[in-house]
Design brief:
Elements (H helix, E strand, L loop, with lengths): L17 H13 L4 H14 L12
């Protein structure tokens, strides 16, 4: 049976330096994706490609 799945999402406010925001927005615009989609992809890439090291405990 076909089942529509919707990933769970949460809102989180973060602070970034203005020059970084400008660079990310420019990159998102050039690639026709949202700023949010780009930031998520960048974070996932960084986490997945980190050098092997012991992960610090996660904050709640």
């Amino acid at each position: 049976m076909f089942e529509i799945k919707k990933p769970q999402r949460s809102n989180k406010t973060i602070r970034m330096p203005d020059p970084l925001i400008d660079r990310l927005q420019e990159l998102a615009d050039r690639n026709d994706i949202s700023f949010n989609q780009l930031v998520v992809q960048c974070c996932e890439y960084a986490i997945n490609d980190m050098a092997e090291q012991e992960e610090p405990p996660r904050e709640k």
